[in-house]
Amino acid sequence: GENVEQHPSTLSVQEGDSAVIKCTYSDSASNYFPWYKQELGKRPQLIIDIRSNVGEKKDQRIAVTLNKTAKHFSLHITETQPEDSAVYFCSLNQAGTALIFGKGTTLSVSS
Amino acid sequence: SAVISQKPSRDICQRGTSLTIQCQVDSQVTMMFWYRQQPGQSLTLIATANQGSEATYESGFVIDKFPISRPNLTFSTLTVSNMSPEDSSIYLCSVISGSTDTQYFGPGTRLTVL
After folding, report:
1. Confidence (pLDDT) at A96
2. Does the beta-carbon distance from B31 to A96 stay under 8 Å?
3. Which of A2, A41, B3, B47 could form a disulfide with B55 if both were Cys (CB 3.0 to 4.6 A apart)?
């Protein structure tokens, strides 16, 4: 089945710095790539997503890039703030199927 | 987005017993799924809950251990049977709603097995 590799597993940055998390996948049929943020004790929340016909998408301080040829996609957070501290999961699927998740990245933003 | 509720929110159970978790959605949804999140880990898909037919299980999960029902388009249950401490996890219901691929998650059920 599909496999999603996510790196790094932990990331520590200073407030105001940028953070980048990268995921690679194997199944070229995957066409939907959402990112979820999970705060301690909470459910995963969708923060941004991208579809296979788009190379980049931005929403304020968050952006996602997709390289279908190389089979990788990345989450970029600029001007990080302490409230960005959480676990971030990349995921993917094909239309109408369940999401498969990466192992997660614990982001710590220190002020 | 769909509003998803789960009951119970948490439970502490004894080894060998079973627990049924309920998932209720405020609107009809096309797809419902059950995930497990072990402590400090990622989300692992248990099964797809199919309305009116048997659930589709992922590798490593079987119906005898995790029976699932989905009697209609807004409700599903997951039973964790003959529990052992290794079943201690958060169990999350998830749905795809409407015409988009967006997948939403319920608040989860935190299960501790002693």
Report:
1. 77
2. yes
3. B47
